[in-house]
Amino acid sequence: MTELLGVPAPVLFGQLLLGLINGSFYALLSLGLAVIFGMLNVINFAHGALYMTGAFVAWFLLNYLGIGYWPALILAPLVVGAFGIVLEKTMLSRLYKLDHLYGLLLTFGLALIIEGLFRNAYGVSGQPYPIPSALQGGQNLGFMFLPTYRGWVVVASIIVCFGTWFLVERTRFGAYLRAAVENQELVRAFGINVPLLMTLAYGFAVALAGFAGVLAAPIYQVNPLMGQDLIIVVFAIVVIGGLGSILGSIVTGLGIGVVEGLTKTFYPEASATVVFLIMAIVLALRPHGLFGRPRA
Amino acid sequence: MKLGKMAACAAAFSLAAGAAQAELSDDVVKIGVLNDQSGLYTDLAGPGSVEAARMAVEDFGGTVNGKAIEILSADHQNKPDVGSNIVREWIDVEGVDVVVDVPTSSVALAVQQVTSEKDTAFLVNGAATTRLTNEDCAATGVHYTYDTYSLAIGTGKAIVEEGGDSWFFITADYAFGHSLEEDTSNVIKENGGEVLGAVRHPLSSSDFSSYLLQAQGSGAKVIGLANAGSDTTNAIKQANEFGIVQGGQSLAALLMFITDVDSLGLDVAKGLKLTTGFYWDQNDDTRAFADRFSERMNGQRPTMVHAGVYSSVMHYLKAVAETNDDGGKAAVDQMKKMPVNDFFAQDAEIRADGRMVHDMYLVEVKDPSESSGKWDYYNVLRTIPGDAAYQPLSESRCPLVN
Amino acid sequence: MTTLNARTETRAILGSPQAGYVLTGAVALFVLAAPFLGIYPIFLMKLLCFALFACAFNLMLGYVGLLSFGHASFFGMAAYITGHTVKVWGLTPELGIIAGALVAAALGFAFGALAIRRQGIYFAMITLALAQMVYFFSVQAPFTHGEDGIQGIPRGAFLGLVDLGETLNIYYFVVAVFAIGFFIVYRTIHSPFGQVLKAIRENENRVISLGYRVNHFKIAAFTLSAGLSGLAGATKSIVFQAATLTDVHWTMSGEVVLMTLLGGMGTILGPIVGAGVVISLQNYLATVGSWVTVIMGAIFVICVLTFRRGVVGELARILRGR
């Protein structure tokens, strides 16, 4: 068995690959947070809860309506997105004039409610969700056995992430969005419906969380607390990448996943802490994050 | 002279106090069933244990020496602070006389502190750590159903004897996991095997892939799962996904309940060897209990914890009826004097350190083709007599023993 | 920079000072007599610990205008330190509590030095992330015993003389600790130092232009707040004889935010009222299990949407408007 730095090569590569898979979820979630923060100036604490909701919607579809994985991959994000739009219209939009912290506190409350409700109904031990038949089995990569489904997760999330990046950075809709972020009054003067734009942006970002939830369902089981601890890591990633930076959040999300994988090989005890350590270092050297620009 | 008078006086006083104590406080015997009712140990204990306690009370006749018996239950969420606070309040405010079940070793250890401080009986069924009858033993505590030592002896020895002599552990990072890993490691080494390494995971993990990968990389013949409940089932499922068993390594689930086998399905679980204190399909008595239990629990068959809760509550009530005293130490002392004889255990006894010694069983999960249907899951390979299954009293580190 | 409650009244609540004294006196009398009124003393002690925690937290949120989402790490780490020093090193409870509070203050200084570079949301997220590091440290470090926590911490004897195993003794001990902590908070707010803090909240740039080194004031306030949170956590560990991961988890940080928000941030009595409501809710709703989370979430949402001044803040407004 070949060794790299005293660690068997298969273990190292394997952990890196697993890190990349985790990183895919980080990227999808931090991307959504970045969009919401960029547009609404709100840190969406409910993001983890909505990710979990996405997984549960997929589970409901399968168990009560017999709708399988592939339709759920489209339907669940739509449901979660619609739910997000309702939240934004009825509650969040009333807080924009106030300090941004109220948005954080409101979404924190929402997260407690959503997670509490699911917890009451389904306990915390998790519901199994089967891997779709087309993606069962796996490939032997020589250094490790890669379950096909996990490979699919990486591919799907990278496609969606860069699709979103393209939408925001390279299309007319994205141009409106970015302009509205820079100067709302001016964009409004051009006759663009900014409140609608904000609602759509929130709905879209939340739908991304729902999508991540469906992707996660077959791997992690559908569990009411699945988003709770993830969200804190994703917060740190968004801070590292630079609040509001789309590309920053994607790259940092994937990168942190890989770094975690490395840490798991060399110093497993620190794998949960390393992201916060990086955050502290980045903040000390570049307070606006790796990809962020100073904002007023 | 003066001294003698004082001594007589003190004796009289203590006699009076003793007489005042030897009765059933508040004219009611209250049983508190404390366990996990929403988390990963819900199925193996949870509402089933409450129901089992209720069955025991009904079968006993509903009253003890003419005094009512009441049952309370609560969810400790697997958190030691939550558990010990509930028990403290139960004893202080509700006047609970005996606490039962308490899976999750860390919670059981916390509860043991409170019950021994407040002279309340504690019948441990769900928790496994041997610390409960060693460093942390108490005169008010009985460890009834099983422990990590007996699991290690049963499963660990059997696997090493079959040639599985190099091990890697995936261990739940709390008292129970550590205890199980340690006890099993000792058994492996005593039988000539070796332990190549271990990795600790937090309680209630969802993703085991990175731990499994480390286990795979270790090259050990056997991957020992020193965890329980949905942690074990998740680890087994993901090991399947990553092709661990196909790769030539075998899995050893050191603690598995019949409900875990049920949730995994025989296709995944077949061939696993495990140790249990009770299997419902052993004889007419066990089947009779299981039938009554499953009638009340939507068809679920009892785990060893459920059976243990029934048996221990019954034994406690008999002891209390005998002495007419529901003080913790008094009741447990009486329990230790009487042998246990029921469907769960035959001629079993509770030792000075609080360990209830009874036979354990090494079983193998059936192949789907052998099983006649739901809950027909085990072949009993051998019976491990109580003396061999449990840590000898001479090795106990319990201060009560010496 | 907008601050959280630029318009919140900071004057002593409930109008005239006399009314305040009468109210405080009544509350003090009730607290002293409570064990004889048939209220479960452990519940009262828990309430007092959390009330002190919320008061300490309010010092940051209400008077400096900085939302920390990491206060659980001070509360929980102090609990661990106290538990360890009392159980393993054999310190008397008061020394253990002082050790816990000092460590919490030192931790607060480190947090403050790192986080003070940013404000508002950034500050909240950075404190949250740092607190998460403390959480994982608590999971790993041997002296905390990970998931098991430190159990069976002896209550010991105060100064080696008064046995705290007696319920009444420990109750009055906790009352005394609370009184000391509350007095420190009260004096801080009404000192020149407190005035500068409030000025920073209202208009930071102006304070800078007046020649104050704002960051020094903020770090000092944060350290004090952390130390007092530690005092609360340390005392709780003596009362419940346990220090566990629950105390350092971020949901605990959320709880203290809720108490302060509900009671009224920037008011002196608000956090106490908030703690009272939240702890009572948790206690009486314990039987309905996880509904507690849902109800707490709902209170959060209602607070943020409808009465952002909190119970005491709104009450003060009504009384003044009369």
Number of strands of chain C: 4
N to C succession of SSEs of chain C: HHHHHEEEHHHHEHHHH
Structural class of chain C: mainly alpha
CATH architecture of the largest domain in chain B: 3-Layer(aba) Sandwich
Give unreliable regions of chain C as ranges: 1-15
Name the beta content range of chain C.
Answer: under 5%
> Distance N terminus to C terminus of chain B?
36 Å
Strands of the widest sheet of chain C, in order across it, are 1-4
SS elements, strand count of chain B: 15
Envelope shape of chain B: globular
Quick one: biggest sheet of chain B? 6 strands, mixed
Secondary structure tally, helices of chain B: 14
Question: For the largest interface in this structure, which chains are involved and how many residues does each contribute?
Answer: A-C, 41 and 42 residues
Given the helix and strand composition of chain B, which structural class is it? Answer: alpha/beta
Task: Tell me what you see in this structure.
The complex is a heterotrimer of chains A (296), B (402) and C (322). Chain A has 296 residues and is mainly α. Chain A has one domain: ABC transporter involved in vitamin B12 uptake, BtuC, CATH 1.10.3470. Chain A has eleven helices and four strands, in the order E-E-H-H-H-H-E-E-H-H-H-H-H-H-H. A two-stranded antiparallel sheet of chain A has the order 1-2. In chain A, strand 1 and strand 2 form a beta hairpin. The longest helix of chain A is centred in the N-terminal third of the chain and has 32 residues. Chain A is globular, with a radius of gyration of 19 Å. The mean pLDDT of chain A is 87. Chain B is of the alpha/beta class. Chain B has two domains: 198 residues, Response regulator (Rossmann fold); 158 residues, Response regulator (Rossmann fold, 3-Layer(aba) Sandwich), CATH 3.40.50. Chain B contains 14 helices and 15 strands. In chain B, the strands form four sheets. In chain B, strands 2-3-1-4-5-6 form a six-stranded mixed β-sheet, with helices on both faces. In chain B, helix 3 runs parallel beside helix 4, helix 5 packs parallel to helix 6 and helix 8 packs parallel to helix 9. The longest helix of chain B has 20 residues. Chain C is an all-alpha fold and 322 residues long. Chain C has 13 helices and four strands. In chain C, helix 2 crosses helix 11, helix 4 packs across helix 5 and helix 4 runs antiparallel to helix 9. The longest helix of chain C has 27 residues. Chains in contact: A-B, A-C, B-C. At the A-B interface, helix 1 of A face helix 7 and helix 8 of B.
